[in-house]
Design goal:
There is one protein chain. By secondary structure, this protein is an alpha/beta fold. 48% of the residues lie in helices and 14% in strands. An eight-stranded mixed beta sheet has the order 7-5-6-4-1-2-3-8, with helices on both faces. Helix 1 links the parallel strand 1 and strand 2. It starts with a strand and ends with a strand.
C-alpha cells in the first residue's frame, strides 16, 4: 500500500465528507493505493456516524473511536499502530490542511528518501494574537532546544516513512514534538516543506491559549528525556552523590573541629547547636533521595511499559 492518511478528529461533522471527497480525488488522480484512518477522539456529535457511512461506501476508509476524549497524541499513537502504508500522512480534520500537498509529500519520502517531512504553514490565516505570535515564540524555543531547524513543529500536516511511526511512542501531549521523538529514535533525515494553510471553514478551534503553556512544559519534559531519559542515574545519581559527599565532608569537618577544640580545652558548643550541622544533614538526606530516584528510574526503564493509555470503543475495517 502506498499511503495511509491518518486524521485525528473531535467534533468535526461538518468537514468530514468534504475532506474525504478531496482526499479520494487526490488519490485516484495520482493512482495511489491508500487507506484513510479516522480516529474519533471522543466526539459527541455525528462524526462517528459519518465515518461509518464513509466506510460502507469505501472499504479503504477505516475508523477508531475512543470512548472519551484522550487527546491528539493518544489518537495518533493508536492510528500509527494500525497504519500499513509505505508513507503515512497525518492531517487535521478541519480542512486547514490541503490534501493537494499529499503527492509532493509522498515523493519527498519515497524518491528523496526522507524519514520525515514536516509541513510549514508559512502564511497563516489564524489570529495573530491567539496563534501566530505565541506559535513563533514556541517554535523558536523548540528549535533552540531540540537542534531541529523546523519552523512549525505543531503543523498537523506531516509525512513519515512507515518505519518511523512504528518506532516512536507518542504519549502525553507529545504530538507537537514528533520530529524530536523521531530524531531521538535515530531517524536523521528530517526536513520541512512549505504547505498551504487554509482558514477554518466550519466550527471553532479546539485549542486555547493553555496549549502554549502545556507546550512549553512538554518541551522541558522532552528536553530532559532527550538527555537523560535512557540514563536517569547519570543525572540523579551524579547530583545525589555530589550532595551526599558535600554533606558528609561538611559533617566530618564539623566533628573534627569539635574534637580539636575539646582537645585544646577551648570553649565550644554542642554539634546539634551548630546550624551548619543541619545544613550538612539535609544535604546528605537530599543526596540519598536523589540517588534513589535515579536508581528507581533505572528500574522503571527495565520494566514493561503500560500501553493502556486509552480505551478504544469501536473499530471499522481494522
Amino acid at each position: 500500500m502506498d499511503i495511509s492518511v491518518v486524521i485525528p478528529l473531535l467534533n468535526e461533522e461538518e468537514s468530514l465528507k468534504e475532506l474525504y471527497d478531496w482526499i479520494v480525488k487526490v488519490m485516484q488522480s495520482n493512482h495511489f493505493s491508500y487507506e484513510i484512518l479516522f480516529i474519533d477522539d471522543g466526539s459527541n456529535d455525528s462524526s462517528w456516524r459519518i465515518i461509518e457511512e464513509l466506510s460502507h461506501q469505501n472499504p479503504n476508509v477505516k475508523g477508531i473511536k475512543f470512548q472519551i476524549n484522550f487527546g491528539k497524541s493518544q489518537a495518533l499513537n493508536a492510528a500509527f499502530k494500525e497504519a500499513n502504508g509505505d508513507v503515512v500522512i497525518t492531517m487535521d480534520a478541519d480542512l486547514q490542511d490541503n490534501p493537494d500537498e499529499i503527492p509532493e509529500l509522498y515523493d519527498l519520502i519515497i524518491k528523496k528518501d526522507y524519514d520525515l517531512i514536516s509541513g510549514w504553514k508559512k502564511k497563516r490565516y489564524d489570529s495573530k494574537i491567539r496563534k501566530n505570535i505565541p506559535s513563533k515564540l514556541f517554535n523558536a524555543v523548540a528549535r533552540k532546544t531540540s537542534g531541529l531547524h523546523l519552523h512549525d513543529f505543531n503543523c498537523g500536516l506531516k509525512a513519515y516513512k512507515n518505519e518511523v511511526i512504528k518506532n516512536i511512542d507518542v504519549n502525553g501531549e507529545m504530538h507537537r514534538y514528533i520530529p524530536v521523538l523521531a530524531k531521538n529514535a535515530g531517524f536523521s533525515k528530517i526536513d520541512e516543506k512549505v504547505v498551504q494553510h487554509q482558514a477554518r471553514k466550519y466550527g471553532t478551534t479546539k485549542f486555547g491559549m493553555d496549549r502554549f503553556i502545556n507546550g512549553f512544559l512538554d518541551l522541558i519534559t522532552i528536553s530532559f528525556l532527550t538527555k537523560y531519559g535512557k540514563r536517569p542515574m547519570h543525572l540523579f545519581g551524579l547530583l545525589g552523590t555530589l550532595m551526599f559527599a558535600l554533606g558528609f565532608f561538611a559533617s566530618l569537618f564539623i566533628g573534627i573541629s569539635k574534637l580539636i577544640m575539646l582537645y585544646n580545652h577551648q570553649p565550644t558548643i554542642l554539634v546539634t547547636d551548630n546550624p551548619w550541622f543541619y545544613i550538612a544533614l539535609i544535604a546528605m538526606i537530599l543526596g540519598s533521595q536523589l540517588f534513589l530516584a535515579g536508581f528507581i528510574g533505572e528500574l522503571i526503564l527495565r520494566t514493561k511499559r503500560d500501553e493502556s493509555r486509552y480505551t478504544i470503543g469501536k473499530k471499522i475495517n481494522l
